Amino acid sequence: MPAVKSAASPPQPELIRTLGKWDLTALGVNQLIGSGIFVLPATVALLVGAAASPLAWITAAAANALIVLCFAEAATRFNQAGGPYLYARQAFGSFVGFETAWMIWLTRVASQAALANAFASYLAYPSFLPGADTGNGRVLVVSAVILILTAINVRGVRQGSWLVNFFTVTKLAALLGFVALGLLFVDPANFRGLTEPRWEGFGRSVLLLMFAFGGFEVATLPAGEARSPRRDVPAALLLTIAIGAAFYLSVQIVAVGTLPSLGATDTPLADAARGFLGPAGGLLIALGGLISIAGTNAGTMLAGPRVTYALGEREELPRIFRHVHRRFRTPDFSIGFYSLVALGLALSGTFEEMAAVSAVARLVFYAVTCAAVPVLRRQGGAQEGFRLPLGPVIPVLACLVSLTIIAGAGQSELLAGAGALVVGALLFAAGKTRPAKPLGGP
Q1: Minimal CA–CA distance to 191: which of 324, 52, 32, 37?
Q2: Secondary structure string (H, E, C) spanning 40-107
Q3: pLDDT at 1 over 50
Q4: 226: which strand partners?
Q5: Residue in 327, 247, 311 with CA at minimum distance from that of residue 439
């Protein structure tokens, strides 16, 4: 007897594919150019010497370009949402996929902690709230930032495209103005010693800059809502890294060329702008930094908890992680868990420490994605357009670059990364009370 279709069970609605190449590029650029550009120019100058600091940015850009190329090929094989988690699970199975998702979550939570500290640093700018970055002032600001965002996200927040565009346009406009005007005041004498970096700090500086360049991978996450994901996601990734590298290098050159005391400030761009534009210029850049960091903070708080919620929904984490607030219909347990960890990390460390932890976690899933490319090739399946030349050479180089930079991390960051992998394995085991829901093919 033929089955009778039920009119009461309509098909599951599908995502609308409306995003094009430039939409995805804007998403990647907005995440890539976040808080790091307002803080790290001074940190890198302190580690390797101001004059030689552009070399660290060039090295980090080249390292990230290799990794982005691997992401671009992997993305051509999928039209679903999921990004690195999807690539790892398809290539290496559910456990590696879970650990990849877990390290993505750790990247987000450590970034949240770093961003909260960066916000406190810029809020302490003399014209805003002096003392906001030290002692009890820092504790209050960091706690307030994270707890307010937690409350907003538990109650439910709809971020319209106008808000995202506001943060992006304001941030890029401020940076373009800083570069365009600052180039007129650059002193070439500040670059004496360009080819003589302090090598003992070079590896750590590149590790920190992986935090700055991180975020391009978000362009892979909404592939299920892209019109031509196998064509447009790779293009967006390549455009994102090119635009980001151009901004970062230009900003560092202006900061070095206009601020002799670059390594001795927590607000390098604001101090540099105040030097060549006066107090109004410094205030404008500081305000741009606050807006940029606030926007990235909000976006990170929105995205981070959804990783554990998604894993809970797929029954790869205990069911409590997929709990939804009965009234507000938000993943309240995942948000609360994420926020408590972020707050603890933020209060226990500085921007630099949390950025390093975030970079180590990010490099783990970067390396997994690079390693997945040759495996995905052997598996065959759909691929349109972008394919890396030279066979396995670029994926192997990208893996080696990722592992080399990880090896340059401090003991505390390495222990934190190893501990996170162990916690991820325990959570994976705890969540395996039943088989995970199927992923589907590429």
Answers
A1: 52
A2: HHHHHHHHHCCCCHHHHHHHHHHHHHHHHHHHHHHHCCCCCCCCHHHHHHHHHCHHHHHHHHHHHHHH
A3: no
A4: 19
A5: 311
- Concatenating the DSSP letter of every residue in 369-436 gives HHHHHHHHHHH-----S---SSTTHHHHHHHHHHHHHHHTS-HHHHHHHHHHHHHHHHHHHHHTTSPP
pLDDT exceeds cutoff 70 at 161: no
pLDDT by residue (tens digit) across 367-382?
999 999 999 888 876 5
Distances (CA, A) of 397 to 164, 371, 391, 401: 35, 10, 11, 6
Q: Is the dihedral of CA 268, 294, 161, 225 positive or negative?
A: positive
CB atoms closer than 10 angstroms to residue 83 = 25
The tokens 């937690």 sit on which residue? 150
* pTM given for the model: 0.76
C-alpha atoms less than 13 angstroms from C-alpha of 73 in its C-beta half-sphere: 24
Q: Where are the alpha helices (DSSP H) in 214-331?
A: 229-258, 268-277, 279-313
CA 171 from centroid of its chain's CA atoms: 16
Name residue 19's beta-bridge partners: 226
**Which of 246, 204, 294 has its CA nearest to residue 65?**
246
d(CA 195, CA 202): 12
Question: Tens digits of per-residue pLDDT, 129-145?
Answer: 788 877 888 889 889 98
Distance CA 55, CA 63 (A): 12
Is 62 within 8 Å of 200 (Cβ atoms)? no
Whole-angstrom CA distances from 348 to 29, 142, 259 are 30, 11, 30
Distance between CA atoms of 439 and 442, rounded to whole angstroms? 9
Tokens of 160: 């319209």
Q: How many CB atoms lie within 10 A of CB 378?
A: 7
Which residues, other chains included, contact 318 with Cβ-Cβ below 8 Å and sequence gap of 6+? 312, 427, 430, 431
The rounded distance, in Å, linking the Cα atoms of 171 and 289 is 7
Assess contact for 258 and 276: CB atoms under 8 A: yes
In degrees and rounded to multiples of 5, residue 51 shows phi and psi of -60, -35
